[in-house]
Amino acid sequence: MSELEPREELGFLLGGVRSLLEQLVESGAIEVPSDPEGVARAHANARANANAHANANANANANANANANAQVQVPRAVAPQPPPVERPRVRPPVLETPDTLESVEARRVRLAQIEQVSASCTRCALHEGRTNPVFARGSASAELMFVGEGPGADEDAQGLPFVGKAGQLLDRMIVAMGYQPDDVYIANVVKCRPPNNRKPEPNEAATCIGYLQEQIALVRPKAIVALGATACEGLLGTSGITRLRGTWRLYRGEIPVMPTFHPAYLLRKPEDKRLVWADLQQVMQRLGKSAPPNPGKR
Ligand code: SF4
After folding, report:
1. pLDDT digits (tens, 9 = 90+) for 190-233
2. What is the model's pLDDT at position 298?
C-alpha cells in the first residue's frame, strides 16, 4: 500500500467509524435520537438519575453517621468532686425546761425567778395600770392546772389569781373535784390587770403568753382546764368557747386541755354550772379522781 497523506488518512478513519455506527444502528445495538430535544431529555434524565444516586448516598451516609453517634457513647468529662465535708452535729438549745430541772424544788425556784421578771415587766401597756402583778398560786408540781384570762380588781389588789367571787366559786369546784386549792396550779393569760376588767387585747395576750408557757413547761400538769374564751385562745390558738367546751384538745400536741366556761360567767349565769361540772367530771375521769362523798354546794 502506498503511503497516505494525513488528510486522506483522517478521512479514511472517519469513513470507517461512520460505517461502523450505521451497522450498529441497523442491528439495534444502539439508539440514536432522531431530534435534538430527545438528546437534551436524555441528558436531563441522566443528570436526574445521577442526582438521585448522589442524594441516596448522602442520606445513607447521614443515617450511618446517626447510627454511629447513637451507638458510640462518648464519656462525659466528670468534674472532680470535693471530699465530703464533716458537718458538725446541730444540738438543740439547752433550755431550762423540766427535762433539765427535775426536782420540784428546782422548778419552784425557776418559777420564782420568772415571777420576779414578770413583776417588773413593762413589755405591754397593761403594766401602766397594775397595782400588783399577778403570777400564780398553787403547787409547782400539780397534776391539774387552771388557766384564766387576767386579774380583776381583787386579784390586782392582792397579787394573787382568782381570789374574788369568781375565785371563790372556782375553789368550791376544785374541792368538789376532790382536790384542795393548793393542790392545783392556777394562772392567767396576762399577769397585769386590764383597765375596767376588759378583755386583754390580742397583742397584750400575745406579749404575755410566754410567761404562761414557761409556767406550764415547769409545772408539767397532766391536764389543763381552760377557763373561758381568752384562755382557749391563749392555749389553743382558737376561739369559740361555746363550741369548744366539753371537748378535749391538746396544748402543743401533748397536754390535754378541757375548755369550759369561766367562773365569772357562771356568776352571771348559774344555770350553766351543770355544764361546767360535766366538763370537770371528764377531767376527773382522765386523772383517775372520784368526787368526794359530800363535795358541798358548788
Ligand atoms: S401583762 Fe404581761 S407582758 Fe404585759 S406588762 Fe404585764 S407581765 Fe408584762
Report:
1. 999 999 999 999 999 999 999 999 999 999 999 999 999 999 99
2. 54
Q: 3-state DSSP call for residue 136?
A: strand
**152 C-alpha to center of ligand 1: Å?**
14
DSSP 3-state helix, strand, coil percentages of the chain (rounded to 5)?
A: 50, 10, 40
Answer yes or no: are the C-beta atoms of 241 and 259 closer than 8 Å.
yes
CB count, 10 Å around CB of 175?
Answer: 17
Q: How far apart are CA 115 and CA 108, in angstroms?
A: 10
- Percent of the chain having pLDDT more than 90? 62
| pLDDT of res. 269 | 98
Yes or no: say if 126 and 270 are a contact pair by the CB < 8 Å rule: no
Nearest CA to 169 among 286, 261, 291, 239?
261
Kindly calculate the radius of gyration of the chain based on its CA atoms and give it in whole angstroms: 52
| Terminal Cα-to-Cα distance of the chain (whole angstroms) | 163
Measured between alpha carbons, how far is residue 174 from residues 8, 102, 191, 228, 256 in Å? 150, 27, 22, 16, 18
Residue among 120, 192, 193, 199 whose CB has most ligand 1 atoms within 8 A, to mutate: 192
| Low-confidence residues in the chain, pLDDT < 70 | 1-101, 293-298
Give nearest CA residue, ligand 1 atom 6: 192
The alpha carbon of 69 is separated from its chain's Cα centroid by a whole number of angstroms, namely 47
Instruction: Please work out, in degrees rounded to the nearest 5, the angle formed at the alpha carbon of residue 212 by the alpha carbons of 210 and 217.
Output: 95
